[in-house]
Structures are given as C-alpha cells and as structure tokens.
Design goal:
The structure holds 8 protein chains of 8 kinds. Among the domains of chain A are: 62 residues, NADH-ubiquinone/plastoquinone oxidoreductase chain 6, subunit NuoJ (Four Helix Bundle (Hemerythrin (Met), subunit A), Up-down Bundle), CATH 1.20.120; 41 residues. Helix content of chain A is 74%, strand content 0%. Chain A has 7 helices and no strands. Chain A is globular, with a radius of gyration of 20 Å. Chain A starts with a helix and ends with a helix. With 198 residues, chain D is an alpha+beta fold. Chain D has a domain of 129 residues: Alpha-Beta Plaits. Chain D has a 3-stranded mixed β-sheet with strand order 4-1-6. Chain D starts with a helix and ends with a helix. The chains are: A mainly alpha (164), B alpha/beta (186), C alpha+beta (385), D alpha+beta (198), E alpha/beta (214), F mainly alpha (103), G mainly alpha (391), H mainly alpha (126). β6 of chain C pairs antiparallel with β3 of chain G.
Chain lengths: 164, 186, 385, 198, 214, 103, 391, 126
C-alpha cells in the first residue's frame, strides 16, 4: 500500500514537473518526485541512499535549479508552454520507449525473483566498503567533483567577473 | 574687510559690478550684490583666491521682495560664505532676478560650492527661481505635480478648512464660509 | 520600488555581456524602519551595490519658515524646538543668537553659562540617541539603543525640571533665558555629569571593540576631506573626515572661549570614525559641563533691554549660527521693522550633510547605506522644516 | 584575537541582565499606571484658567484682554470678551471672557500664554492622561472645562503658585492703598483672594 | 416561545459571549504596532518602548515593520500632504482588525503647523482614528494611557449585532480613498466616508457641537 | 508483496516522462529537469536490482547509486552553468531561439 | 524509583499500546510519539517566545511583558488568539497555492527533524541508522519552504529576503555538517541514539561529553554558530533584516500564516539546539555522575533551555553582519575551521591517550584559529584606532 | 515486526502528517472564524504588494546576480562530499591509517577546488 502511495506521488510529481507552465511550479513538482523516489529507496531498504537523495536533490540540486531559474528567467515569471515543433513525434518516442521497457521488464525473469531476507546494511557497511572496495571510485569522484566545480564556476562566472 | 574684498573682486572680475548693500541692524553683516552674468566667475574667484579662500558656502536663501517694498519687486538669493581654512566669515553675496514673474533666472553656484545643491533646489521649489547650470533642478520639498511657489509673499493657500474648533479671526471667517458652502451641497 | 525598464538590447549588446546593466531600483522609505522617520532614498542597485542614490525630501515639510514669517519673533521660538526635535535647546540658542544679533541684545553672564550647560547636555542627548539608532540600524536588537535611551532619560529629566518639557523646551529668550534654575537642579546635573562617563565606558565595552561592529563600521562610507568641505558638511561628520572646524572654537560664540576642551578628529572619515568622534565629543562635552557647572555665576537671567511682548527689531538682517550637535545650525533673519520677521530662514545642518549621502554610499551595499545614513544623523523636522 | 570584543560585549549585557534583578539602576522601568514618575514643579502640558474662590466661573482671574490669544503661536485660544463687567480680585471692574476655548488638539504646550498673561490668570496644567476616542467633543475645552481652582494650582506647582499669590497680594495691596475708600466693597465681593494668600 | 428554544438561544448567547470575551481579550493584549514614525512624537513613541516606560509590559513591543503583521498604526507626528497618501495606503494594507492612534497635536488636527500649506489638518480626514492623544508631544505615559484607552475600547466591542466594530461588518469598508497629488492640494481633500464635516459651528458650546463623524 | 516489476515499471515510467519532457519542452532548464528525472529513474533501477539481487550483502548497487548521485549533481551544476552562460549570451533559455540565433 | 521516573513516558506509552489491538499498534505508537513531540515543542515555543521577550527585557533594563496573566505568561496565548482572528491577506499578484503551502511546508520540515532526536533515554521517536543524515535531509527542506514563501509573495523585499536566506543557509550547512562529522567519528555511528550512548560514561564525576575535547569544543562552537545561522537568528538574521529589507521573506504574510513562520523558525532553532546537545553535550546524560538520579529527559530539556538562553543572550548583544561578511565568514572562516577540526579530530584518534593528545589537539585547532582570525581581521582592514585632538 | 505501511519509517510519516495537521488546523480555524464573524475584505489597495507605502508596479522580477549561483555550486559539491564523508566517519574507528589518508586525499581534492574558487574570487560577495 505504501508503495502505491509513494509511486503515485512520484509519478504525479514527475508528470507535473514536465507539464506545468510555471517554471517554479515545475521545480516544486520535481521536488515532490525526488522525495517520492527517496521514499522508494527507503522502501527498498537503502536508507542511506534515500536520505542522501533528499539531501542532495532537494536540498542542493533543487536550490541550484531555482537559482539558475531566477537568474535566467527574465521578464515574466511565467514560462509560456513552448513545445518543440515535433512534439507529437517526441511524445510518441517517449511512449514507445516506455512500452518497450515495460514489455521487456514484464517478460524478463526479474519478476520471478523473490525477495531476499532484508540485508542488514548499515552506514558502517557502506563506509567500510567505500574505504576498501570503492576507494578508487571515491577518489575519481572527488576529482570529478572538483573538476565540475571548476568547470561550472568558470562557465557561470565567465564574462561576469572578468569585466569588473 | 568687505571693501577690501570688493576691491579685489572688482579687479579680478572686471564686469562683476559688485555693489555693497548695507545692513541696518547691529549685526553689521553687510553684503555684496553681484551681477548675475558674472556671478559664477566671481564666486570661483572668492573660493580659489589664496588669501580669501571662501571654501565653504554655509547658507543659501531666497527672499521675495514684493513690489510694495521695492518697486519693481524682484527675487533675491543670498549666499553666506565662510572660510574653513582661514576660519573667517561671513561674506554675504546677493543675486537678484529682474522681476518676480517671468525673468526669474539666476546662475547656479552649485558648480562652485556643492553645498548649494539642495538649498538652490529648495529655492527653486519654494520661490520659483530657476537656476541655470544646476545639475538637478527639481522640486525638493513639494510633490512634483505641485504648481505654486508657496514661500512667495503672494502665495494663496488652498482653502482646506473643513472644521475649526478654534475658529479664530480670519480662520473663523474662512471656516464659516467653507462650512456654509459645504452644507449647501447635498 | 520599481524595476528599471528593460531595454530592448541588440544582439551585440547582449553578446557584450548581458545582465550587466540590469539594475534594480528600490525605494527605501518613506515608511521604512530605519530612515529616521519619513525620509526616502531612491536607490539603484547593481546586485547589492548602490549605483545611484537619490534622496527624496519633503515628507515632513511643515512650512516652518512660512509660518514664522507670519508670526511674531517670540512665537517662532517654540517652533524652533520642533526643528531638530531631539535637541531643542540648541535650536533655541541658535534662534536666540540670530535675533540677538539682529536687535543687538546682550546676554547676561549667568544666562550664557546656563545656555552652555543646556547646550552641552543637549549634545549628550543627541549623540546618545544617534549612536543608539546607529546600532539599531546595524541590527542590534535594541539593547544598545535601550542603554542609550536610559541615559538620555536622565538628561531629559533635567530638562523637564528646568523647562517643564522633556523635548520641546522652549527655554531661551532673546537676551537670556526664561526661568531660573529650580532648586536642587545644579546638584542633580552634577550627579548626572559625574555618572555619565561610566555609561560611555560601558557602551564602548559593548561596541567599540566588537568585531561585528568594527566590520560593519570600519572602511564603510568614507567621506574625503575635500568633498566634505565643498559640500558644506558640518558637525561631527566633518570632523570625522579630519577637518578641524568647530564653530564653538571658530566663532567663540557665547562664552565658549572660557572653556578648556578639545576637538576630536577622525582620519579615515568612515562610519567608525563618525561613531568614535561622537563618543569622544561626548567626553569633551562632559569636560565643558564640569567647568561650566563649577563656574556658574550669580546674576540676572535676561537683558533688561529685551522685551517679551511687542518686540520689533530695526530693519536689517542677521545670520547667526552655532555648533549644534548635528553641525552648523544657522538662522537668517530679515527684519522690516514689523513684529514679524520679513524673512526667516533656517540653515539646517542635516539637510546639507545629506548632500554627500550619495557620494558616501556609492559602491557600498544596501546594508551599508542604512548604516552610513545613520551616521549622517539627520532629523527630518530639520531637513524638511 | 577574533571574538574578544564579542565576548566583552556579552559580558556587558550579562552584567545588565543580572543587574536588573538586584539594582534599581539596571531596571529603570517605571510601571506607569501603578507607579508614576514624580512630576517636576515646572512640568507643563496644557493651560488652564485659575479661579479664586468657589465659583469656578465668577472667580476666573481672566479679564479677556486677549493677549494670549494674540500671542499664542499655533492660535489655539479663542476668546470672546463679555459685554458687561465684573469686579476682579482687587475689586476693579473688568471684562470677563464670555467664551474662552482652547483647542488642545492644536495646543503645542509652549507656555507662551502663561508668560504673556499680565494677570496670572492662565497657568500650565500637568495632567497628561487625556486620550480620548472623540476628537471633536473631547479636545476642545470650554471655559467650564478649563477653570481650575487656585488650590489645584498650588497642588501641582507649589513654588510658582506661592510666587504668583505673593505677586497678586502685592498688587492688591497696592491697589488698596491707592483706592482706600472702595476697599470695603471690594473685599466683600471678593473674599477668596484672602483665603488663597494665606 | 417554548422553553427549550429559549434555553437553546441562551446557550448560544453564552457561547457568543465567551467567544467575544476571548476574542477581545486576545486582541487587546496583543496589539502589535507598526514601526511607523513621522516626526517629533515618534521619538516619544520610541521612548515609550524603551526601558523607562516599557510598552512591552502590555505585550506591545513587537514593532512590526510590515503593515501586514501590525495591528496598530500610531500616527506619531505631523502628516504632511506629501505623506498623506502613503499613510493611507499603509493603513489600507494592514490586515483587519486594525487600529489607529493619532498621537500628538499634529496628527489630530495639524497642530501648531495647521496653518502650513503642506500640512494635513488631521489624519482623521482620511482614516478612522480610534484614540486621540493631545499633547505636543504627549509624554510617554500619555501614550501608554492612550494604549490602555484603546484596550478598553477593544474590550467593549461586540462580536455580533448592530454595534459591532467596522471590521466585523461585511458592509463596512476596509480600505479608504488614497488621495492623489493635485496641482494645489490633495485630491480629494478629505474622505467623506470617514470625515463628515460639521454642519453648525458653534464655538460657544464646543461640547454640544454636532460632530457628524466619529 | 511488491515485486521488482513494480519498481522497474515506475522507473520506466519516470524515465519515459523525463524523456518526453526533455524532448518536448523547449526551455533549457526544463530539459535539464527531464534529464535529471531520467538519471533518477536509472538510480531507482540500481537500487531495485540490488535489493532483488541474489546477494544484497554486496553493496554494489547502493554504492553505484551513491556515486551516481554525486555524478548527477556534478552534471546538474555544469549543465545549469551552461544554461546560464547560454542565457547570458542569447538572453533566452528557449532552446529554439538559441538555435535560430546561432551564428 | 529513579528508573521508573526516568522511563515514565516510555512505560506510559507501552501501557497505552498494550490496550490497543496489535494491528494498529505501530501506527498508534507513532502517533503517540508524534503528538508528544508536537505538544511538547509547541508549548516550548510558546514558552520561549515569552521567555525571550522577558529575557530581552531584562538584558535591556526593563521588565518585558508582565501584565497578561500571571507574570505575563499568557502573552503567547493572546498573541496566538490575535493571530488566529486576524485577517489573512494574500496579495492579488501572489501565487495563491504556493503562498498557502509555504508556511505549512516550513512547519512540517522543521518538525521532521525531531523524529531522531533522543529526548531522553529510550525516548527517540525512531532510531534510524542514518539518523543524522535524515536530520540534515529534513532540515534542507526548510530552504525550499523559505524560497516558496519569498517567491510566491511577488514582493521584491520578500524575494530578496528569501534569496539571502537560502544563500545563507546553504553556506552554513556545509560547516554545520562538517562540524558534526567529528562527533560521528568518535561515536562511530550516524544514529543519534548511539551518539548519545557513547557519551554517557563518566571519568570520576566528569562526563564523557565530546565537548570536553579540543575538537569537540571547537566542533560545538562551530556547530552552534552555523546552527544560529541556519535558524536565521541574530546576528545572522539578515533574511529578515528589518533595517534593510523590512521583514524579509514573510513581508506579505499576515495572520496565522505569519505565526506559523515564527513557529517554524523557533522549532528549527530548538531542533538545532537539540542536535547540538545530542552530538556534543551528551544528549540526555546528566552533567555529573552524581546527578544521574534526575530523569534523562529533564537533563535534555535543561540543556535545551540553557542553549536557548544563550541564543537569547547573543541576540541581545550583537549587531547584525552584512551579507558579504556573512558569506565570507561561512566560506573563509567556518569551512576551513571545520576542515581543520576534522583533521584535528582524526589526529586525536591516532595519537595515544594522554597529555600529548591534548596538546597536539589544542595546537592544531588554536593556531589555525588565531591565523584565520587575524587574516579575517586584516583582509577587512579592521583595527583598533587612536584619535587625535585639536585645540 | 514490520508495520504494514511504510515499514520502519512509519513514525516519520505520521510525524509529517501530524505536523501538517498541526499547521493546517489553525489555518482552517482562522478561515472558519473569518467566515463566521470577521469577513475577509480584500481590496485593490489592500491586496497590492507592500512597498514602503508607495504605489507598486506589478512586477516582482529582480535581476539577480550570479553570486548566488556560484555559492550554490560550491555548496552542492561540498554537500555531495559530505555524503561520502559521513560513511567514512562512521566506519572511521574500524579503519586504518590508510583509509584515513585516502579520505584526506579525497578531501584535499575538494579543498583544492575551494582554494581555487577562493582565489578566483568566487567566494567574494559582490
């Protein structure tokens, strides 16, 4: 039952995020979708990921989007519902993708898998494996984050500060 | 001292036609009337002259001389100058308009002393003297839509006495008249 | 608050760095918590930086000059209280001084001493209030202001028992003062003056070394010496910029040449200097008060030549000025021999000190603007009259 | 060191906080309706008319000379002179105010009316609890509302009142000396001036 | 009328009365003034909120800078004609229930500056004033006294019926005409809904003047 | 009992919605939002497969999701910075207009 | 007896649950906890508003509210009633739905954090393994609520206030999280319960609170500073800096919605204080071993009140920072200090116990503090000045 | 024993719902009050945007500076970093010096970014 509730929230949020006219409303709907996804992670027993999802996506990415939006959205708060010229085709493509995915999921053997007993994964487990098995990806991520920081800042502040 | 300044001024700014205006009160603050065409030049001289150094313009005032006292009437601007460096003053300068109605232009001394900026705006607002060369000549105290110059002696106030508990002399008359006018209306 | 009209930028302009000229216009006031009443500043912001600042006046234009021109000389005296309503006694003095010059009245010595005492007390009142409001503008939640007003109340009590009113003293008359000191007033004043330095110490303890206060005040709102002189800035603001000009010393009006006091001068001309100059000036005022209270002579209070009713000075004009707490307060009077002044003009220090507001604020953030504005120390009654 | 000044400031406020529980100096509040600050002798708010004796109207010292009306800076006094006369405290026949209104919604408490009054008939009251919900009925005071007995004056400004009484007694004595024959008549008509000077 | 109905009605009456008392109690003890100072009286208003007089004792030290959150506008000082539209607009933007204290001579009638060409002769020309405090400026105690007068006034207001205050009456206006700046004066010079002029001026008996408005 | 199929279907649905949005909407920020949604759908798949894998004790799925969050965050930062740069250049975030104004 | 007093609420809950059917027991239990949290902290909010006003009064030489009810204690009730009956204004240009939702989201987000706060022994609504992360996740929603409020009002002051608030909150969130990591390292868990448990021991009479270590003390101070900034309290109350931007993001809110913002802010402040207690001040543990007889929740709330009093004290004293100074302080002082503290903490764990540990730890923190502090002063050109006098 | 809905997270959900109810209830009550007694009286003046008592122009668009965005980027990066730091901290006492050094390297990378940003003036509020 809880799955149904969360799923409805998530999908509704995602749908709203993609269809609402007002950009801010879109972001708020997106937040609902993110939160719903976090709920799904929690349902699946990935507590750490679930909360990390909220912290990063709701607390940071959404804020980032909001800032970007307020920076770029200039004169009227309403974004007109502009759609690409070939929106019918695009929608059809998306529907097709969904149908194919759904069909493959249905027909695959995954559904038959029964759930394993709840694994006792704690943050400590994550930490242990992060610092042992995944230490290289960790460093790479660090590098990536630094690179992203440098890149994003350079792109965003180009012209701005240089002019001053 | 004033004579000395006048002599120097006349020598330095030949066309300034300065004129001493004597003051009858015990304060003894006599003033110099300047020709408006040379006022900026004279003011600059007074400010920059090494021995005079009237670097500080304290007070700028408008005066409305109605026709009754001085025929024909005119508007006057009075500047009180001091020297911060030499620590002396005041030197009183006067500028006059030609009349009170249409020829009310005077040169602005704001380029010489910035402290005149708001005071000249105020005089423009309240007396209607137009200062040529003022950087930002707008109304300062009254709202922009206002049309009159209230400090002029012949300004008529708007009649807005609705009810006067202290009905008093001419106010009483006004209020009575007003009340009567209003009560006749539905 | 209006948004600047967005220009239709050409492609080239956009490419040159769009978003550069997108300025925000904000009106601070007339109803704004920290514009000391009904002042208004139209500020143009680039981000948070002030690009342009236009003061808008007149929201308290009470036609003081016009009213005074249709009233007798005496009747204007209570109106002067309401000019700079924080320090009515110095306003009284400036007006009385101008009229005395106009009519050639002599003030008895005792009255001069009392004038000095009340004027210096007024300076304390004004500076405490100013500094209190300044901290309020920096966002302190009332405490320094409360302490400042705590001390102010003590002096207001003195004023009340001397003149009958806390704020609108209406005490001085042409050629002297209105009433004799009440019994016990001198002792009470001495006590207040004795205790005042302790308050100053506490206040400095609270603020002067406070890092947040220093960060907010130092290097903010710098006013250069030359500009200050050019723009006719007077009072503590001028002295904070390093100009040694105090009318008490220059004109030696009243009996100020008899007292031993110094003029504190700032170097940087920033908010911190203006704050400190006021603090130090209060200490100097206390010195003057000590001396004046010690030396107060006996004698009459009024020039016998002075008349209360039917006062008609000879035709002529006079400009009298004093060092009011906010700067040079001058009165310019033209008499035509009638009981009313023909022209009555107030030279308000606050208005003219505001001339440089834009120059001081340009380039600083909007929060600084409020603080800088606070150190200009204006009172709207005087600015708009 | 960073934070030193902040700590000093905190110490200062803490001293005031704890001081407020022990020292009167650090708890300066006067809880108004219950506690009241003493009003000094000179305190002034609005003018009132002094009367001698018991009759608040007949005993008014005011002779409707209208000087205060003329001198009042905000022009808040309105006087209409009576057509008949009545004897004043020294027995001289004087006009009296048929109408004496003060609009306290205009009055600026400047005390000039008191200063210029040659008869000490108008004095400053120090009552201030005058807030009203009705501007028109509550703030225009008539002769009846303005009249207050001399004892009240003594009550609020004892020193000034004593001075005034002395002056009046002197004037009266002078008047009596000048016009001996009418003394008897005037004292009978004005018995109150005796009581007040005592 | 049958007994049951009467009991029922009186029960409702009790409910209304308790509600009314509670409502008035809450309102009168939590009057938050707006940070709004105009002139000299504003200094005394500030002094009132300072330690010596401490308006906070009445729970009224919460000076809200935004009119949305304030209950009381203390018109403290001279309202000039240039300022009048702003004052009225601010008053209009306040949320009901809202109260006005006209503090000092200038706010009530223009006071000493009444003769000025730029001074509004009483703020009650445009907005309904609840309490007037004469004085120039009134002492801080006088403001506290006015505050208590306002509390008393609030306490006497009824929740329902004819005599209910303006903000409970759906018919009564909640915002008033904001004057415009004209070429010589404000337009309109007053708001007839608030300020009803008097028909007969009788300076002899001011107490009996037929004051149209209130 | 919910089966992995439900989660996977939701994931597919969100992916499709994100895809549709990214393709249909012309506002650059909305396109980015669409992409974020797709990434999240993928994350959900990771977690689901981890949870229903024969050996959930191996934290691969969780770690993958964590790293994916980090990478997606970096992507969002750079993407939005790009949008801002584009906006500054063309004064619009409408991709069509950007397209037509190129050159 | 002590044990019973300590666990009285837990026992009470169990007693109540025992009488309910098994199928609804979990939901019932959750509801009981939720209601307890709401009631307790809403009451605390009311109490704090009046205590703050009275306390500020005392700092300022006056009484503060003392006329409504006994000692003025009914003041919050009157304020609440007033707010309830006040007209609710929604500006016509505002975004109605978002305008309406913002205060609700704020209150919900502010309350969510309490789920993991151990209010006493065994008194945690839910003991999550990733409790701390959950707390931060929940509190990050507050930013969004503030943005909603500021944006939906369509008022420039409120939008400016909201942007300031968000910029401030995100800037201080980094040092906030980093300063907690030291405690997490010591406790070896993200679970708030476990963190408190690890501090419950005593050496003699002295408790094993993390605040009594160099890194713990530094962490606590950093956490509190960042926490004050997170909850928009003075001297970091720029978003509602009334001397500049009127009332910040809630300029346009009236009536009870405005009250909800106040509630949300105070609730957020309590949560931050509660977390500080949990992380550094030993949670519900008694301050001395001989005081353990008092119930655990008593100690929690006592510590909470002390921290709140401290915040009031700070508010009564300090002026407000400027926006750039605020951001500088966050990024150029707080963040480096938090990182250094992290380093100091890990060094602490790798050095053997004893005096050397203390010396190294203290130096590792004090030296950078002095250097950074001086750098901060110098980069802003702050100095003590002397003045000259003219005759 | 796992509760039927929302698993162990039930208390959170219940708390959220209760808190929402806690916020909504007084709002509903206030609405009820205004319906019965004190009518809401919107008006063109009253419901216009507050701006210091001046008239408003119907726009709320403020040109924001990119500073906000730059800070947000740095924040985002450090937020993600915290996500990795937290599990490390939890497992810290069980890990050796090597892991700590690995984490320090990770941190150092980010600090490097911070220093770069600092030097670039990103962290300067304009």
């Amino acid at each position: 039952m809880s799955f149904a509730i969360i799923a409805v929230f998530t999908v509704a949020g995602a749908l709203a995020a993609m269809t609402l006219r007002n950009l801010v409303h879109c972001v708020l709907a997106l937040v609902v979708a993110f939160t719903g996804l976090a709920g799904l992670y929690l349902q699946l027993g990935a507590q750490f990921v679930g909360f990390a999802q909220i912290l990063v996506y709701v607390g940071a990415v959404a804020i980032l989007i909001v800032f970007a939006m307020l920076l770029t959205q200039s004169h009227e708060p309403l974004a007109h519902l502009t759609v690409a010229p070939g929106w019918v085709t695009s929608s059809l493509v998306a529907v097709a993708v969904f149908v194919i995915l759904a069909w493959s999921i249905r027909s695959s053997a995954v559904g038959a898998r029964s759930i394993q007993p709840r694994p006792e994964i704690t943050v400590r487990n994550i930490g242990d494996s992060l610092m042992s098995q995944f230490v290289v990806p960790l460093e790479v991520t660090g590098l990536l984050l630094t690179a992203a920081l440098v890149g994003a800042v350079t792109i965003a502040m180009r012209e701005q500060r240089m002019n001053r | 001292m004033l004579e000395e300044i006048k002599a120097r001024l006349d020598a330095a700014v030949p066309g300034c036609r300065s004129e001493m205006i004597l003051n009858g009160s015990p304060s003894g603050q006599h003033s110099l009337l300047l020709d408006s065409a040379h006022a900026v030049e004279a003011a600059t001289f007074l400010r920059d002259h090494a021995e005079l150094r009237f670097d500080y313009c304290s007070n700028v005032t408008g005066v409305d001389w109605l026709e009754a006292q001085h025929s024909p009437g005119y508007l006057e601007v009075v500047y009180h100058l001091y020297s911060m460096e030499k620590k002396r003053g005041p030197l009183v300068l006067r500028l006059r308009t030609e009349n009170r109605t249409d020829k009310v232009h005077l040169p602005s001394l704001t380029p010489v002393w910035r402290s005149a900026e708001f005071q000249e705006r105020e005089i423009f607002d309240l007396y209607g003297i137009i200062f040529d060369g003022h950087p930002d000549l707008r109304r300062i105290l009254m709202w922009d839509e206002f049309e009159d110059h209230p400090m002029r002696k012949d300004y008529v106030e708007p009649d807005d006495y609705e009810y006067e508990p202290t009905a008093h002399d001419d106010i009483l008359a006004k209020a009575k008249q007003h009340a009567m006018g209003k009560s006749q209306e539905p | 608050m209006t948004t600047a009209p967005v220009k239709e930028a050409t492609h080239d302009e956009r490419a040159a760095g769009c978003g550069q000229d997108e300025l925000l216009e904000i009106a601070l006031g007339p109803h704004h918590p920290s514009t000391h009443g009904v002042f208004r500043m139209d500020v143009v912001l680039d981000g948070e930086r002030v690009v342009k600042l236009k003061p808008v006046f007149g929201y308290l234009h009470r036609n003081h000059e016009k009213i005074a021109e249709s009233a007798s000389y005496l009747a204007s005296m209570p109106y002067t209280d309401r000019l700079d309503y924080i320090c009515s006694l110095t306003n009284n003095w400036a007006y009385a001084l101008a009229v005395e010059k106009l009519a050639g009245l002599q003030v008895p010595e005792r009255a001069e001493y009392i004038r000095v005492i009340t004027a210096e007390l007024t300076r304390l009142v004004n500076h405490t209030a100013t500094i209190g409001f300044l901290t309020q503008e920096m966002g302190a939640s009332g405490t320094p202001l409360m302490y400042a007003f705590r001390e102010r109340e003590k002096i207001l009590d003195l004023f009340e028992s001397l003149t009958g009113s806390r704020m609108m003293c209406n005490y001085m008359r042409f050629g002297g003062c209105r009433v004799e000191l009440p019994a016990g007033w001198l002792e009470q004043t001495k006590k207040v003056v004795e205790e005042f330095p302790r308050f100053l110490d506490e206040y400095e303890q609270l603020l002067t070394g406070n890092e947040i206060f220093m960060a907010r005040a130092q290097g903010v709102g710098i006013l250069k010496k030359d500009l200050a002189i050019d723009a006719g800035v007077t009072g503590p603001m001028l002295r904070a910029s390093g100009v040694n000009y105090d009318i008490r010393k220059v004109d030696k009006y009243g009996i100020y040449d008899r007292f031993d006091f110094k003029i504190p001068l700032g170097e940087h001309g920033d908010v911190y200097d203006r704050y400190m100059v006021r603090m130090l000036e209060m200490r100097e005022s206390l010195k003057i008060l000590h001396q004046a209270l010690r030396d107060l002579p006996q004698g009459p209070l009024m020039d016998p030549k002075a008349k209360i009713r039917g006062f008609r000075p000879k035709p002529g004009e006079a400009y009298g000025r004093i060092e009011a707490p906010k700067g040079e307060l001058g009165f310019y009077l033209i008499s035509d021999g009638s009981p009313n002044p023909y022209r009555y003009r107030v030279r308000p220090p606050s208005l003219i000190n505001l001339t440089v507001l834009e120059d001081m604020c340009r380039g600083y953030s909007i929060a600084d603007t409020i603080v800088i504005f606070g150190t200009v120390d204006i009172v709207l009654g005087e600015v708009d009259r | 060191m960073l934070g030193e000044g902040i700590l000093k400031g905190l110490a200062e406020t803490a001293r005031n906080f704890f001081g407020s529980f022990v020292s009167k100096e650090r708890l300066t509040t006067v809880q108004f309706p219950e506690e009241r600050l003493p009003q000094p002798e000179a305190a002034r708010n609005f003018p009132f008319l002094v009367y001698d004796g018991d009759d608040s109207q007949a005993g008014l010292r005011c002779v409707a000379c209208q000087i205060c009306e003329k001198e009042c800076p905000p022009k808040c006094i309105f006087i209409q002179k009576s057509s008949d006369k009545k004897p004043d405290y020294i027995g001289k026949q004087q006009f009296y105010p048929a109408v004496f209104n003060i609009d306290v919604s205009v009055c600026m408490s400047c005390q000039i009316c008191v200063e210029v009054c040659p008869f000490d008939a108008i004095e400053m009251d120090n009552a201030f609890e005058l807030s009203t919900t009705d501007r028109f009925r509550g703030l225009l005071w008539s002769r009846e509302q303005l009249a207050k007995p001399n004892s009240y004056f003594h009550n609020i400004h004892p020193a000034t009142a004593a001075e005034v009484d002395e002056r009046l007694a002197e004037a009266k004595a002078r008047a009596e000396a000048k016009a001996k024959p009418t003394v008897a008549a005037s004292t009978t008509s004005q018995p109150d001036s005796q009581t007040t000077t005592s | 009328m049958d007994q049951k109905l009467r009991i029922e009605l009186s029960k409702q009456g009790i409910v209304t009365t308790t509600l009314e008392e509670l409502y008035n109690w809450g309102r009168k003890n939590s009057v938050w003034p707006m940070t709004f100072g105009l002139a000299c009286c504003a200094i005394e208003m500030i002094a009132t909120s300072m330690a010596r007089y401490d308006l906070a004792r009445f729970g009224a030290e919460v000076f809200r800078p935004s009119p949305r959150q304030a209950d009381l506008i203390i018109v403290s000082g001279t309202v000039t004609k240039k300022m009048a539209p702003q004052v009225v607009r601010l008053y209009n933007q306040m949320a009901e229930p809202k109260y006005v204290i006209a503090m000092g001579a200038c706010a009530i009638s223009g006071g000493p500056f009444k003769q000025g060409y730029n001074v509004l002769k009483g703020i009650d020309r445009y907005i309904p004033v609840d309490v007037h405090i004469p004085g120039c400026p009134p002492r801080p105690e006088a403001l506290i006294d006015a505050f208590m007068t306002l509390q008393k006034k609030i306490d006497q207001q009824t929740l329902t019926g004819e005599g209910r205050p303006r903000h409970l009456d759906p018919e009564a206006p909640s915002e008033f005409v904001v004057p415009r700046f004209g070429a010589h004066d404000l337009e309109p010079p007053n708001n007839p809904e608030v300020f009803r002029i008097l028909n007969n001026i009788d300076s002899r008996n001011p107490g009996e003047v037929d004051a149209g408005g209130d | 009992m919910t089966t992995p199929v439900n989660y996977l279907l939701i994931s597919a649905l969100i992916f499709a919605i994100g895809l549709a949005g990214a393709l249909v909407r012309r506002n650059a920020i909305l396109v980015l939002i669409g992409i974020e949604l797709m990434l999240n759908a993928a994350n959900l798949n990771f977690i689901t497969f981890w949870r229903y894998s024969p050996n959930p004790e191996a934290l691969t799925g969780v770690m993958f999701a964590l790293f994916s969050i980090g990478v997606a965050a970096a992507e969002a930062a750079v993407g939005l910075a790009l949008i801002i740069a584009v906006y500054r250049h063309f004064n619009t975030t409408d991709l069509d207009q950007v397209d037509s104004m190129r050159g | 007896m002590t044990e019973t007093m300590d666990q009285i609420f837990v026992l009470l809950k169990h007693r109540i649950l025992a009488h309910s059917p098994v199928s609804v027991q979990p939901i019932f239990s959750a509801a009981l906890s939720a209601i307890a949290i709401l009631v307790v902290f809403a009451t605390l909010f009311a109490l704090t508003t009046i205590l703050e006003r009275k306390g500020l009064g005392r700092f300022q030489n006056r009484y503060g509210p003392n006329r409504v009810g006994p000692f003025g204690l009914l003041q919050p009730l009157a304020d609440g009633l007033k707010s309830l009956t006040k007209e609710d204004i929604v500006p016509h240009s505002a975004d109605g739905v978002v305008h309406m939702l913002a205060p609700i989201v704020l209150v919900v987000a502010a309350f969510l954090g309490y789920a993991v706060l151990p209010l006493g022994r065994n008194m945690t609504a839910i003991n999550l393994d990733a409790g701390l992360l959950y707390f931060f996740a929940a509190s990050s929603v507050v930013e969004l609520a503030i943005f909603m409020a500021g944006w939906s009002s369509r008022n420039k002051y409120s939008l400016l206030g909201a942007m300031r608030a968000i910029a401030q909150m995100i800037s201080y969130e980094v040092p906030l999280i980093l300063s907690t990591i030291t405690a997490v390292m010591a406790a070896g868990s993200l679970s708030t319960g476990a963190i408190v448990e690890s501090q419950t021991g005593y050496s003699g009479i002295w408790p094993h609170w993390f605040v009594f270590t160099p890194w713990g003390f530094a962490g606590f101070v950093l956490f509190m500073i960042a926490g004050i900034a997170e909850s928009n309290r003075s001297p970091f109350d720029l978003p509602e800096g009334e001397s500049e931007i009127i009332a910040g993001y809630f300029v346009e809110y009236s009536g009870f919605k405005f009250a909800l913002f106040f509630l949300g802010e105070y609730i957020g402040m309590f949560a931050i204080c509660g977390l500080a207690i949990t992380l550094f001040l030993g949670g519900w543990a008694a301050p001395f071993s001989f005081l353990t007889w008092a119930p655990s929740y008593f100690w929690f709330f006592a510590k909470l009140l002390v921290l709140i009093a401290m915040l009031i004290w700070v508010r009564a004293t300090l002026p407000r920072l400027r926006m750039d100074q605020l951001m500088n302080f966050a990024w150029k002082f707080m963040l480096p200090m938090a990182l250094i503290n992290l380093f100091a903490a890990s060094t602490w764990h790798f050095t053997p116990p004893g005096a050397i540990r203390w010396i190294v730890g203290t130096i590792l923190i004090a030296v950078p503090y002095l250097l950074l502090g001086r750098g901060l002063m110098q980069s802003n050109k702050l100095e003590k000045r002397t003045y000259r006098f003219a005759d | 024993m796992n509760p039927p809905v929302f698993g162990v997270y039930l208390p959170i959900v219940v708390l959220a719902i209760a808190a929402a109810g806690f916020a909504i209830a007084p709002l509903a009550l206030a609405r009820l009050w205004s319906k019965n007694f004190s009518p809401r009286k919107p008006g063109p003046q009253k419901n216009s945007t507050y701006e210091c008592g001046l008239e408003t122009k119907e726009t709320s668009w403020i040109p924001f500076r990119p500073e906000y965005y730059l800070y947000a980027i740095v924040f985002l990066i450090f937020d993600v970093e915290a996500i990795f730091l937290l599990p490390f901290a939890v497992a810290f006492d069980g890990l050796g010096l090597g892991a700590a050094i690995a984490m320090m390297v990770f941190l150092l990378l980010l600090v490097e970014g911070l220093v770069w940003a600092w030097q670039k003036g990103v962290l300067t509020w304009v």
